[in-house]
Amino acid sequence: MSSDIDNDSRKALQEVINRLKNYKPPSNQWDEFDVSRRAAVLILLFPDSKGELRVVLTERSSNLRTFAGQVALPGGKADSPTETAFETARREASEEIGLPSRNDLLPSPFTVTHLCEMPTNLSRNQLGVRPVVALLHTKPGYSGSTVNAEESLIPRLDPKEVASVFTVPLRAFLESDYKSPEFEFNPAEKFAESTVDIDWGTVPTGKTGWYEGQWLEWYGIKWRGHQFNVYTSPVVVQRRDSTQVLEDEAQAYAIGNLEGGRRSGGGTHDKKLIKYKVWGMTARIVVDAARVAFGKNPDFEYVDKMGDDEVIQLLQKEGKLGPRVKGVIEDTGVGTRVSNGEGRKAESGKL
């Protein structure tokens, strides 16, 4: 952690970290999935210079086969039956954003600590997605000069499969009226937008245009769709010429970036504000992670139960979650809007 963080902020940050460390998901359905249906995403958190815990998000490249142009957490499919969710998430984060998959490859003084795992979610293409929460921080006992991951590490990553990388305060995903310090909201003002444009048919709530939501139905189960409109200056990626890079070469390239600054093909900060839309499964995952981290619920409507165990159990009973068969188009159960959905309204206090 940065030595510039005041004592009160440091104490509050440690409480958040402890909540995540102590969290145990009620069940682990991920292990029950065939390896062809296992995936994991990395909820990579780090404290900024003020002690605010931030989460790393990406905009997927527009030329990817699945979910092109969408905002997502770093992650992907498991490689083998023995690969854990944490190992999957770290490997995929290495391939996607250049974060080394092993701590001994991270430049000093940084390290990554596994905090917890969240309940398994089901993606639209019927993968069991296990969110893994990890903390990027300086090593215990580090007494050197002050370092800030957002300034000294994040911009030097070497993304391969994403168009840009940006970070957002985790607590913002509990607020319907969050105001980013980077801009003054003006509904009439035009911002550069990320690739995907989702029309919810709703008007953003509050004065900042930060949040909008919609009740949906997925396989007959009510589901709350969240969308957060993030205005930020991202790390814009200039992709390398080679599209196929062995992982060891990618690791070496990423380490060079982290230790020696940006090379050709690395990320650069774009000063203009871009509007990113964090929605769907990604939005639900970060909302749930924020609920656990801060020990309270959002001030907008939400589904109390975390994860998708009801849908997973339903599809398992119907025999629809066996090994994936190449070329077979599967029913995605895409949600329909519910005019009078019922869910939990936010409550203050502990979970």
UniProtKB/TrEMBL annotation:
Biased composition (Basic and acidic residues): 342-351
The keyword Repressor appears for this protein: no
GO MF terms, alphabetically ordered: coenzyme A diphosphatase activity; metal ion binding
PROSITE patterns: NUDIX
Gene3D superfamilies to which the protein is assigned, alphabetical: Nucleoside Triphosphate Pyrophosphohydrolase (3.90.79.10)
Keywords from the named record: Hydrolase, Magnesium, Manganese, Metal-binding
InterPro entries: CoAse (IPR045121), NUDIX_hydrolase-like_dom_sf (IPR015797), NUDIX_hydrolase_dom (IPR000086)
Region of interest: Disordered: 332-351
Cofactor: Mg(2+); Mn(2+)
Any single GO BP term: coenzyme A catabolic process
Stored Pfam families: NUDIX (PF00293)
Occurrences of domain Nudix hydrolase (ranges): 36-191
Protein's UniProt name: Nudix hydrolase domain-containing protein
Species, as recorded: Arthrobotrys flagrans (Nematode-trapping fungus)
